[in-house]
Amino acid sequence: MARTVWDSTVGKKTVMAVSGLIMLLYLVTHMIGNLKIYFGAGEFNAYGHWLRTVGEPFMHYEWTLWLIRVVLVVAVVAHAVSAFQLSRRDIKARPSKYVHKKPRASYATRTMRWGGIILGLFIVWHVLDLTTGTVHSGGFQEGHPYQNIVDTFSTWYGNAIYIVAMLALGLHIRHGFWSAAQTLGAGSRTRDRALKTVANVLALLLTAGFTAVPVGVMTGVVS
Amino acid sequence: MTAEYVNYATGEPVVDTKAPSGPVNERWDKRRFEAKLVNPANRRKHTVIVVGTGLAGGSAGATLAEQGYHVVQFCYQDSPRRAHSIAAQGGINAAKNYRNDGDSIHRLFYDTVKGGDFRARESNVHRLAQISVEIIDQCVAQGVPFAREYGGLLDTRSFGGVQVSRTFYARGQTGQQLLLGAYQALSRQIAAGNIEMHPRTEMLDLIVVDGRARGIVARDLITGKIDTYFADAVVLASGGYGNVFYLSTNAMNSNATAVWRAHRRGAYFANPCFTQIHPTCIPRTGDHQSKLTLMSESLRNDGRIWVPKARGDDRPANKIPEDERDYYLERIYPSFGNLVPRDIASRAAKNVCDEGRGVGPGGQGVYLDFADAIKRMGRGAVEAKYGNLFDMYQRITDEDPYEVPMRIYPAVHYTMGGLWVDYDLQTTIPGLFAIGEANFSDHGANRLGASALMQGLADGYFVLPATINDYLARNPHHEAVTDEHPAVQEVLAETEDRLNLLLSVDGDRTPDSFHREVGELMWEFCGMARTDSGLRKALERIPQIREEFWRRIKVPGTGEEFNQSLEKANRVVDYLELAELMCLDALHRSESCGGHFREESQTPDGEAARRDEEFAYAAAWEFTETGAAPVLHKEDLVFEYVHPTQRSYA
Amino acid sequence: MKLTLRVWRQKNADADGAMSTYEVDGISSDMSFLEMLDTLNEELILKGEDPVAFDHDCREGICGACSLVINGDAHGPERTTTCQLHMRSFKDGDTIDIEPWRASAFPVIKDLVVDRSAFDRIIQAGGYITAPTGAAPEAHATPVPKPDADFAFEHAECIGCGACVAACPNGAAMLFTSAKINHLNVLPQGAPERETRVLDMVAQMDDEGFGGCTLTGECATACPKGIPLMSITGMNKEWLRATRKVKR
């Protein structure tokens, strides 16, 4: 069964859809958590600490967080590997281009591949910046996410990278969510409009919600 | 006209030795019981060649393979799914009597014999009517999405020439759906390895060894390679020859080569002049026209046909008041009205146009008006029933048939004539069978609407698979034929010579120009109305065109490549011979019947006048040589159940 | 009208191809697109040049043989088949680019003619209902609800022309494959082979080298028969259902 799924184009798309939805779910909670930054350093840092103690006493310190991280890494890798293999296959299936070229498909669709690569690079930077602090611009302090965030968004390139990535995210979700629904067979003629609306709303909310943080720092509301 | 060509000799009558005697409704059972069977274990040792993958060929190939025979099948198209049966629109008849409207096998039998103007064989037609009910069952089981009613049961509609509703349909695409059903059954057998399928391969000649059909010569249309294929029996399901007329509703590449080459090798050709001119086609727009498009006859269920009462009335249709319109079919044939058989509707349209009352460019058209239907049923209902046909009409003519009436005009559509076959569908060459439109058997002088699909599938699914057993069982141990056999060498050499000659003339006229020339000649003199003098004119002209063809034809390229001009030119060679036989047949049959209307033979009110005492026979012609008179063999038609009367649809 | 045609010419499968330019004059707006090409070919033959090879047969929009990409659109600017496209869709002086279907699963045979036998093999893999002749029950034994029959018909309308593949940026055959699966799987007669059909057909589709679906919708836009994009969703659903039900 697993072989059938992985060997098939439809199966690989299913892997992409499921992994994408897992990441989407994570992003929604991540965004809600991020917005707590507007309630001040105390509450935000406490929230950061709570993330590590979720599930206690059943779970040990940071176990839940690591579990989530493992699931996310698996999802990202599965999503990227399927995307890479499918793209390679797609390019091979259409080796020569038409001489008469014309603009095709919507912006979001065309940018799925490039958007995906941008988001992949962003995730690496984002982890190195705010999780490990490896490339952090200020003095990275473990356990003080509020200050770390303010530091990141006090640089022009921190804002630029983040905002560009969030716009890419919006476009990616806009087509990706609807696509995932089709891949999983959840679409139908009667449901199509609703699905497209949900995809648009999700894309808009996530982009706005995430972008609210650098905007807060830039405008001085968060400092 | 070479004087000797019209001075044909009459040979021995041809007799259908396979049709059993006895009550007509028991004959098919009797024949099936008397036919010898091939042991299932031995079937795979028999190879059967099937040429064509339309309704007849597709269903025959699939069924023979299911029975265990090794089938080698050919089509010139790139896929078996594209055979021209796919373009049939209206529906398929079956005597199911689901409507409880008085239908029965006997009534379908009666309607078909009468509709064919008493020139079909009773035993064949009765068998067709019997099998019709099984066809519907078979197609439904295959997943053919017939139109259904809200209760989930099959819907039917009525068609020309009958007063019951027995036509099953799938919107305006019944042929497509039935063909895809057969194609899918065929595909299943190809995947199972029981059928060796050769698409883009065209039969160019028949191989006859020791008086039996043992194979074909065919050309791979991609590489140009000419090859031989051998078998224990050959089945031709290559369709009709309407393309002789250049403009017809046939597909561009439908051709007569397979049947004509078989005829030249000894198979009799029966009733070649019986061609059907379909009344509801879209009129031509100019000289560039390459083919004509049919609008399903089902449109006559709700559309009303009319022309202006006054000749030369060039007002737009909507500006002509009701009392200045002549709904001529309703006027002349009050009980059948717009649903008279095709030959009658076509001729009536020709008559009003000849009177100068035709509409549209050149006055070659009549109106098919849906204004009343839209008023009665509402636009939505009309759209649901005929939407795709209306769209097609609008695309071609750029006129909106919901707003202005359609313009229609008759066009060549189907050929009732074809290779002569016996009750077993075997031609006069043992081991050569002809099914579907390629044979002559079931429609007499005129085919009723929705009967072609019925006949194609009856032949392919049920008749041939039952009767071919008998031939194969009685001729079990053929010696293998190889390329070295002198008969094979001869056919191969002839084929290669013909193609080489076409390529080497290097003249100044294209294959199309000759096709168009002979087509226009046929339409003028061997079309809807024929006369002795006209036919003689055509018979004089055809050998001249043929002579000119071999002097002036130009075919670019070589034979060892994909060469569509060469394909075309080779088909035109055969049209130029077949056209001559059609004219001769039309000339010799000086009566009018069905689709064959001789102006000399009509009733006082202009209807076709049959002359049963002289012409109640099928004319089967035997080939002698190119341009030389063929020999006529008559098969007398006996009517025990449906007694010939002058058809009346008034 | 007078037109400039730029046509893809390729001697055979192995040769390199290129666009060649031709002028045609005296084209009537009532002509079909293929009749316009007939006009060009008649001239080429008389000049002793090789006429442009293209697939065509019924010229009624139903056989699915015609297959030209016109100005970058499969079957040209109108939503119909190439043979039903008329010259009134163009204007005097236009330059028209004519190319073959392009996909690695559809190799060019000559000029504008491509090999679409991959479609036949997809059908052979399972696009049928096993119903040997003679084994059928009475047609009314199993009623089919009208909405299901209509749904089946809408998908059965596919003419197998390949415009979906030609239009798809990934050269995917999902719309073609899904049309047949939806047609047969919704019918009660198709139920016994419902799972194997979708698994086998999708596997064959992949083996033929078609790309995957990224739901750009180009296929459904190009489809002359209006097979909806949602057809692919239906196939995905059937496929997922089948992977759960069938142990392989």
UniProtKB/TrEMBL annotation, chain A:
GO terms for cellular component: membrane. SUPFAM superfamilies: Fumarate reductase respiratory complex transmembrane subunits (SSF81343). InterPro entries: Cytochrome_b-558 (IPR011138), SQR/QFR_C/D (IPR034804). It comes from the Bacteria. Keywords: Membrane, Transmembrane, Transmembrane helix. The chain crosses the membrane at residues 21-41, 66-86, 107-128, 156-177, 198-222. Gene3D superfamilies: Fumarate reductase/succinate dehydrogenase, transmembrane subunit. This is Succinate dehydrogenase. The lineage of its organism: Bacteria, Bacillati, Actinomycetota, Actinomycetes, Kitasatosporales.
UniProtKB/TrEMBL annotation, chain B:
It catalyses: a quinone + succinate = fumarate + a quinol. Residues 48-453 form the FAD-dependent oxidoreductase 2 FAD-binding domain. GO terms for biological process: anaerobic respiration. Keywords: Cell membrane, Electron transport, FAD, Flavoprotein, Membrane, Oxidoreductase, Transport. Its cofactor is FAD. It holds the Pfam family Succ_DH_flav_C. It is a peripheral membrane protein. GO terms for cellular component: plasma membrane. GO terms for molecular function: electron transfer activity; flavin adenine dinucleotide binding; steroid dehydrogenase activity, acting on the CH-CH group of donors; succinate dehydrogenase (quinone) activity. The keyword Magnesium does not apply. It comes from the Bacteria. Its EC number is 1.3.5.1. The active site is at residue 342. Its main location: membrane. Residues 515-649 form the Fumarate reductase/succinate dehydrogenase flavoprotein-like C-terminal domain. Gene3D superfamilies: FAD/NAD(P)-binding domain, Fumarate reductase/succinate dehydrogenase flavoprotein-like, C-terminal domain, Succinate dehydrogenase/fumarate reductase flavoprotein, catalytic domain. Transmembrane segments: none annotated. The keyword GTP-binding does not apply. It is found in: Cell membrane. Belongs to the FAD-dependent oxidoreductase 2 family. FRD/SDH subfamily. PANTHER family: SUCCINATE DEHYDROGENASE 2 FLAVOPROTEIN SUBUNIT (PTHR11632), SUCCINATE DEHYDROGENASE FLAVOPROTEIN SUBUNIT (PTHR11632:SF53). This is succinate dehydrogenase. It comes from Streptomyces regalis. The lineage of its organism: Bacteria, Bacillati, Actinomycetota, Actinomycetes, Kitasatosporales. The gene is sdhA.
UniProtKB/TrEMBL annotation, chain C:
Residues 1-102 form the 2Fe-2S ferredoxin-type domain. GO terms for biological process: aerobic respiration; respiratory electron transport chain. The keyword Isomerase does not apply. GO terms for molecular function: 2 iron, 2 sulfur cluster binding; electron transfer activity; metal ion binding. The keyword Transmembrane helix does not apply. SUPFAM superfamilies: 2Fe-2S ferredoxin-like (SSF54292), alpha-helical ferredoxin (SSF46548). Its cofactor is [3Fe-4S] cluster; [2Fe-2S] cluster. It comes from the Bacteria. Residues 149-178 form the 4Fe-4S ferredoxin-type domain. Keywords: Iron, Iron-sulfur, Metal-binding. PANTHER family: SUCCINATE DEHYDROGENASE, SUCCINATE DEHYDROGENASE IRON-SULFUR PROTEIN. Belongs to the succinate dehydrogenase/fumarate reductase iron-sulfur protein family. This is Succinate dehydrogenase. It comes from Streptomyces regalis. The lineage of its organism: Bacteria, Bacillati, Actinomycetota, Actinomycetes, Kitasatosporales.
